[in-house]
Amino acid sequence: MTADTFTRMDESSAQQWSVIGNETFANQPRVADSVLGMLRSLGMITDGFAVDQLTHCLQTATLAERAGADDEIVIAALCHDIGKTVSVANHPAIAAEMLKPYVRPSIYNMIRVHQDFQGRHYYGHFGMNPDAREDHRATLSTEDFSLAEQFADEWDQIAFDPDYDTLPIEHFEERLRGTFSQPRY
Q1: Percent of the chain with pLDDT strictly greater than 70
Q2: 171: pLDDT confidence band, cut at 50, 70 and 90?
Q3: Rounded to 5 degrees, what are φ and ψ at 94?
Q4: Alpha-carbon distance values, 117 to 25, 36, 46, 111 (Å)
């Protein structure tokens, strides 16, 4: 419909938006393709850690899966540091916003605050408050706070082991494609 499309939104028609909506829905699989590409690109980022950031994300997802976490949590664990492909400083916000339409709000919050929760284990080395997670206690439900603690303490902060039996990205691909197949929230 490119020949009959608009050049300004204020001059668009319902029929044109119908075509755009249908094409957007038909092209939804590209979201998972893009996410997988971004995850794979994390394999080039080490930044002084014992493993690259892709391996870290795979280990975090592997740990979550082996602990019995549901698919949304496992896929969020896989994608939690995907924002580092753009910016390390605000990577939690980037990852959380990418996940927001596809995961329930408690998981969105888990990813959004994960750096401050993980900060208990390293913020002090940078002169920052290692109890920064407490700043979120007033804004998160008790359940969301507990989930963020579990994510940071039991999976994320221990996922830097080059000898860990880490599941490959292919193990998670079908679930990732399912998660990103259409917005649900």
Answers
A1: 98
A2: very high
A3: -65, -50
A4: 36, 26, 21, 10
State whether the Cα torsion 126-124-55-149 is positive or negative. negative
16-72 per-position pLDDT tens digit: 999 999 999 999 999 999 999 999 999 999 999 999 999 999 999 999 999 999 999
Residue whose structure tokens are 């390293």: 122
Q: What is the 3-state secondary structure (H, E, C) of 52-103?
A: CHHHHHHHHHHHHHHCCCCHHHHHHHHHCCHHHHCCCCCHHHHHHHHHCCCC
Distances (CA, A) of 156 to 25, 159, 178: 33, 5, 23
Confidence check: pLDDT of 3 > 70: no
Through-space distance between the first and last CA atoms of the chain, rounded to whole angstroms: 29
51-57's contacts with Cβ under 8 Å and 24+ in sequence apart are 51/160, 51/161, 51/162, 53/81, 53/84, 54/169, 55/162, 55/166, 56/81, 56/159, 56/160, 57/81, 57/82, 57/159
141 token code pair: 């439900």
In this prediction, residue 4 carries a pLDDT of 75
Question: Which of 80, 84, 98 has its CA nearest to residue 34?
Answer: 98
- Report all structural domains of the chain as residue ranges with CATH numbers, in order of start: 15-179 (1.10.3210.10)
Our separate counts of H helices and E strands in the chain read: 9, 0
